[in-house]
Amino acid sequence: MFRRHKSLASDRRREVFSRGAARSMLKNDLRNFQCLSQLVLSAGPLKAIPVVKHSKTVHFEIEILDAHTRKQICIVDKVVQTSTIHDVKQKFHKACPNWYPSRVGLQLEQGGPFLKDYITVQSIAASSIVTLYFTDLGRQVSWITIFLAEYTGPLLIYLLFYLRIPYIYDMKESSRRLRHPVVHLACFCHCIHYIRYLLETLFVHKVSAGHTPLKNLIKGCAFYWGFTSWIAYYINHPRYTPPSFGNRQVTVSAINFLICEAGNHFINVILAHPNHTGINACCPSPNYNPFTWTFFQVSCPNYTYEIGSWISFTVMTQTLPGTREYLSEQGLSDFHLALNSKL
């Protein structure tokens, strides 16, 4: 009897213990579920995993032939479709170091136009193999080098004539004759003109990063340096005669020259840093600066001021070469603009 009561008591203890363990496990599960639900709610909505699309990269093989002999020079392989002609020239330079990129001219067909550097290979490719024709453009120089050489030369050449070095004029005649004040004023105006050119080339104008054949440098320097020598020879000559109307003619012309130089500078600054409001705007608008009001009459006031400068210089010195200097300078400027626009 005693054993039976003892076994019943042990069974009840086990049952109570098992119920307590089950209740504690349930509470733990509820706590874990509550923590998990709070974590999910704080993380926000689930984001869909983006599907990665593996696009197949297309490579081109470019065969470069000589434009004259049609012989194969090299093959540029593994060219991606987004590569440009400039990238092809860089790889061609690695294969053939004798020709640097600015010297390389590539054509899609013999006798055709040279391909621009920004053209992509995909736009000209009809298949995975592209044939291009190579032409050696010769020695190339940058546009900034051309402009600096053209404008530095006249500045130094005029000063050589102004100093009357013995190899140009007779020393006895130079020492015997005194210079007229207009000679000093002409040297000052001429130096101001080309110093402005040099400073604007370095700090104002946005010169193209392209290159041009060396012959254009020789041609430009011959024009600028030659006409500067011509005009400087007559103005600084010991037998130079002053203007017919005296100081009045010199003063009015000098003031007009300085005004035109200032106007030319302000116009060049506006053309280099336009404040366009529309996408299709092509000409800047005049502002509070009175020198920019010439935009109401002409589209390129910088040429108008340039004409005024050289006409004033010609009247001030009363020499014909001043007009010739202007004509040669304007013609060469138009020539440079035409070449620069082709690059």
Sum this structure up briefly:
This protein is of the alpha+beta class. It has helices at 2-43, 85-95, 121-124, 143-162, 171-176, 181-203, 214-235, 246-272, 301-317, 321-342; strands at 59-66, 72-80, 104-107, 129-136, 140-142, 211-213.
Structure characterization notes:
By secondary structure, the chain is α+β, with helices and mostly antiparallel strands. The protein has helices spanning 2-43, 85-95, 121-124, 143-162, 171-176, 181-203, 214-235, 246-272, 301-317, 321-342; strands at residues 59-66, 72-80, 104-107, 129-136, 140-142, 211-213. The chain contains 10 helices and 6 strands, in the order αββαβαββαααβαααα. It has a 4-stranded mixed sheet with strand order 2-1-4-3. The longest helix is centred in the first third of the chain and has 42 residues, at 2-43. The protein starts with a helix and ends with a helix.
Task: Name its key features.
343 residues; 6 strands; disordered C terminus; two-stranded antiparallel ribbon; single chain; 10% strand; alpha+beta; extended; 4-stranded mixed beta sheet
Q: How would you classify the helix and strand content by structural class?
A: alpha+beta
Low-confidence stretches: 1-6, 337-343
Strand line-up of the largest beta sheet: 2-1-4-3
Please count the helical segments.
Answer: 10
Largest sheet: 4 strands, mixed
User: Whole-number average pLDDT?
Assistant: 81
Give the overall silhouette. extended
Q: What is the rounded Rg?
A: 40 Å
Kindly estimate the percentage of residues that lie in beta strands according to DSSP: 5-15%
Strand count: 6
Order of helices and strands: HEEHEHEEHHHEHHHH
The amount of helix comes to 55-70%
